[in-house]
Amino acid sequence: MSGVVSDRLGRKPVLLPALALALAACAIFATATTVVALIVARLFTGIAVGAVVSAGMAAVTDVAGTAAGRPDLAEDPRVSGDAIDSTDHEDLAALLETCAAALTTEEWAEVCAKHSIPMAPVLELDRAHDDPYVRDGHLLDTAEHPTEGTVRTIGIPLRFSATPGSIRRLAPVAGQDTEDVLAELDAAR
User: Fold this and answer.
1) What is the rounded CA–CA span in Å between residue 57 and residue 43?
2) Where would a tag sit more exposed on the chain, N or C end, judged by fewer CB atoms within 10 A?
3) So what's the pLDDT on residue 24?
4) 155 Cβ contact list (under 8 Å, min separation 6)
5) pLDDT at residue 87, as a whole number
6) Closest CA relative to residue 121, chosen from 139, 136, 133
7) In whole angstroms, what is the distance from residue 157 CA to residue 123 CA?
8) DSSP notation for 2-26
9) Do 95 and 43 lie in a common domain?
10) Whether the predicted pLDDT of 92 surpasses 70
11) Residue 120 domain-assigned?
């Protein structure tokens, strides 16, 4: 329903109240002292998410279609409004593939940034450590393994001033814990 409403009234008149409703839901969740308050907050969240996803994706379609040289997509019933037919998934996949290939990843990032659309590329594992977001957020780090040398591992992206996180141990080498595991299994019998 919110997709149709946003087609008629515009994207912002649907998105802004939906965001306000989501914030109200957060406030209710944070201060809830009864089950009724939690139910109301959950209801508000559901309505807000439905409106944001529907109108938000319509806004992305508007922008993406124009950027990909397909401004007609905004009026295409396969991708606009709430009446998207799941039987069209093969056509939609082909359409998406064509539109996505119209620009490079960097060009799509620029288009999205220009329109305040959150976007991040899907990174190949061997290139992920070079990405500024991954590097600066310490999503991947390196550590010294006692037998394997320097290894790349998942980092600790959260930073707490009083209790800083750290990598305390790395994956064991093959067979390192075999005796302990077998002893534990034997003790459990």
Assistant:
1) 21
2) C
3) 94
4) 137, 138, 139, 140, 141, 167
5) 67
6) 133
7) 17
8) HHHHHHHH-SHHHHHHHHHHHHHHH
9) yes
10) yes
11) no
Same domain? For 80 and 142 the reply is: no
The CA-atom distances, in angstroms, between 135 and each of 83, 106, 138, 143, 155 are: 42, 18, 5, 14, 10
Query: By C-alpha distance, which of 68, 60, 77 is closest to 104?
Result: 68
pLDDT of res. 44: 95
Beta bridge partner(s), residue 149: 145
pLDDT of 85 above 70: no
Rounded CA-CA distance 131/123 in Å is 8
DSSP class of residue 86 equals G
Q: Specify whether 103 is located in the same domain as 151.
A: no
38 pLDDT above the threshold of 60? yes
How many residues are given for the chain? 189
Same domain, 180 and 97: no
Which residues does residue 150 pair with via DSSP β-bridges, in sequence order? 144
| Domain boundaries, position 166 | 125-188
pLDDT exceeds cutoff 70 at 185: yes
Residues 14 and 94 placed together within one structural domain of the fold: yes
3-state SS, 132-151, equals HHHHHCCCEEEEEECCCEEE
Residue 43 has pLDDT above 90, yes or no: yes
